[in-house]
Recover the amino acids of this structure.
């Protein structure tokens, strides 16, 4: 009787191949659905003075001492001037004086300043999309070779995350939706989908999602409170926020947008912490089925503390690497570091880093508790407690 039941159960359960195919099919369907979504972003309020297009250098004109004389001929490949040969000016990236060593045939980014009577054409930088495509292909290949089926599922989950941000979050922000609520809702939905796609539907996956939701809510609330206490201006030292307003997006909640950035920034690391911690609880429970929940939590927290130490160090190094040129600039000026840190440009980054780190640290005990109560225990005292 027992063997018959066991055999029947084994026949009805999906194989690893079937689970992988099912997960990939669902992910592909979601991606197609995102692709087919209509664009809900409102049209721009004002016409942009500069349009970017892809172009190709056809020839260089003779050099002169007159800066008003064009020095290059480019063929525009995209946009309203596609197919036209235009005379233009060579410029460095972002207005730098150092001009790259362009060659004939190079694909470049062309800036077109469209006026009523004339068009100003400038070669502003190299076109690097083919390099990006090759680099992403190498990344995808490495993930699949090392990660196998789970690596492929993680790539689809990544594509789903980027698709949600590009097709839902950004357009709804432009349409005037409240940024923090949108970030929390979209982040929670993406987290649930990606964790289930990469880890499958099992107690550890649901515990990881629950821990992520709890830590995400804590991060959002803490970010709002600290942002109010810090009394930042609307732009919060962000040049991008100033640029957004100059584009006619004055109705956009810039302060909320920057808070939403904190939430999405923390979410990327939260997934890693919660999935790892939930998996640790699951493995500990499998290794010692008789362990009580209190013992399980204590053992899992020992693993979590090591994870916290490594994650905090990783976060600090990441922020340090991103801001190293700015730190060197401040050090060269010889100003008081505390006064520099109080300035809004630096203070905003400090708040983002610390608030995000608090949310990530809190995710460890939150996920551990949820995972400990999600696994099935054989201990009778625990079963009575839950009855």
């Amino acid at each position: 009787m027992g063997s018959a039941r066991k055999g029947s159960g084994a026949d009805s359960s999906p194989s690893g191949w079937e689970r992988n195919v099912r997960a990939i099919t669902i992910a592909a369907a979601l991606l197609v659905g995102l692709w087919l979504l209509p664009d809900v972003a409102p049209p721009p309020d004002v016409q942009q003075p500069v349009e970017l297009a892809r172009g190709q250098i056809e020839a260089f004109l003779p050099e002169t001492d007159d800066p008003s004389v064009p020095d290059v001929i480019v063929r525009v490949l995209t946009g309203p001037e596609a197919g036209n040969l235009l005379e233009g000016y060579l410029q460095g990236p972002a207005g730098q004086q150092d001009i790259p060593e362009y060659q004939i045939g190079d694909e470049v980014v062309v800036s077109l300043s469209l006026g009523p009577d004339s068009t100003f054409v400038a070669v502003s930088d190299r076109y690097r999309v083919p390099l990006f495509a090759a680099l992403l292909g190498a990344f995808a290949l490495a993930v699949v070779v090392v990660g196998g089926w789970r690596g492929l599922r993680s790539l689809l989950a990544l594509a789903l995350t980027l698709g949600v941000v590009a097709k839902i979050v950004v357009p709804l922000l432009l349409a005037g939706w409240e940024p923090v609520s949108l970030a929390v809702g979209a982040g929670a939905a993406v987290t649930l989908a990606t964790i289930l796609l990469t880890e499958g539907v099992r107690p550890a996956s649901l515990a990881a999602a629950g821990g992520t939701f709890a830590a995400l809510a804590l991060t959002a609330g803490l970010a709002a409170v600290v942002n109010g206490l810090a009394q930042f201006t609307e732009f919060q030292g962000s040049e991008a926020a100033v640029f957004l307003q100059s584009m006619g997006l004055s109705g956009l909640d810039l302060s909320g947008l920057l808070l939403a950035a904190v939430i999405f920034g923390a979410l990327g690391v939260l997934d890693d912490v919660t999935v790892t911690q939930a998996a640790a609880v699951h493995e500990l429970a499998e290794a010692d089925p008789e362990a009580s929940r209190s013992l399980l939590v204590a053992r899992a927290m020992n693993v979590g503390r090591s994870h916290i130490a490594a994650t905090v160090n990783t976060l600090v190094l990441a922020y340090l690497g991103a801001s190293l040129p700015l730190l060197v600039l401040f050090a060269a000026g010889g100003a008081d570091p505390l006064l520099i840190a109080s300035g809004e440009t630096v203070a905003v980054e400090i708040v983002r880093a610390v608030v995000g780190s608090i949310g990530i640290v809190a995710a460890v005990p939150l996920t551990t508790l949820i995972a400990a109560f999600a696994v099935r225990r054989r201990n009778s005292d625990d079963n009575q407690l839950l009855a």
Remarks:
- The longest strand covers residues 50-60.
- The mean pLDDT is 79.
